Amino acid sequence: VVVPANGHISIAQRCAPFLNEKQIVVLNPGRTCGALEFLNILRKEGNKKDVTIAEAQTFIYASRGMGPAAARIFRIKQAIPVAAIPSRKTEMVVKKLNVAFPEFIPAASVIETSFNNMGAVFHPSITILNLSRIESTMGNFQFYIEGVTQSVAKILEAVDKERVMVARKLKCANVYSAIEWLSMAYNVVEDNLFDAIHSNPGYVGIMAPRTINVRYITEDVPMSLVPISEFGKIFGLKTRVIDSLIDIANSIFKKDFRESGRNLSRLGLEGLDLSQIRNILIKGKK
């Protein structure tokens, strides 16, 4: 399933009457808690069958749409973690995917794929911090190479630090910093995030969006930043920079992305403790 995460609910609702225990659904990518949300919708729609739902940590391609029926692939990422709910099915899913896509590798659980979601770190921050430039030039600049200055990189590092903090509190088996992820996905090795982004040939030529009404905010804020912030609250962690980005996005779009996004209530996790949350994300049940 290759759609913005905002579309996962609609896809799940439409598929619910037809999916069975012999079928596998892979969200490519799931963003944060995509597989859990998809599974919850199937159950809500009355599908209680043992359907395998999996999610990729990120989209396999660094790419951009170039027209109604055209896309440009700038780079194929070299290692994409995938996990299923329940996690015992992950090896089976990856084995089937590897027939066509050898880049997919098994992750320990969807905790790993959801909370190593680098779109949450890069997309909203770079877009929000370049809003005036996007509006004044209609995106006529390279999103990563020109949009990430030294100061913007510092904000990315702060967002990344908060994401990692939440992931570790969830006892994520493998937590990657943004620099480590760039090394894994693109084979870029640097000692700071600014240099790592600017040394990545896969980012060269990727232009900024032509409008601020773009999925980097409308998808990544409610489907990535909101759940990270929500999990932080469970554990008493302060995610000040992430919360600031959510608040700015709310002000720009006159929406409440916390209400419409993947909050604890929507994910069916409200009032649960760490052990119960981990069981749901790893085993698919409390």
What does it look like?
The protein has 286 residues and is α/β, with parallel strands linked by helices. The chain has one domain: N-(1-d-carboxylethyl)-l-norvaline Dehydrogenase, domain 2 (Orthogonal Bundle). The protein contains 15 helices and 6 strands. Helix 1 (8-15) runs parallel beside helix 2, helix 5 packs antiparallel against helix 7 and helix 5 crosses helix 11. The model has no long low-confidence stretch (mean pLDDT 94).
Cα distance spanning the termini: 26 Å
Structural class: alpha/beta
Indicate the proportion of strand residues. Answer: 5-15%
Strand order of the largest sheet: 1-2-5-6
Give a short synopsis of this structure.
GO terms for molecular function: oxidoreductase activity. By secondary structure, the protein is α/β, with parallel strands linked by helices.
List keywords for this structure.
4-stranded mixed β-sheet; 286 residues; 6 strands; two-stranded antiparallel ribbon; N-(1-d-carboxylethyl)-l-norvaline Dehydrogenase, domain 2; 6PGD_dom2; Opine_DH; single chain; globular; 15 helices; oxidoreductase activity; alpha/beta
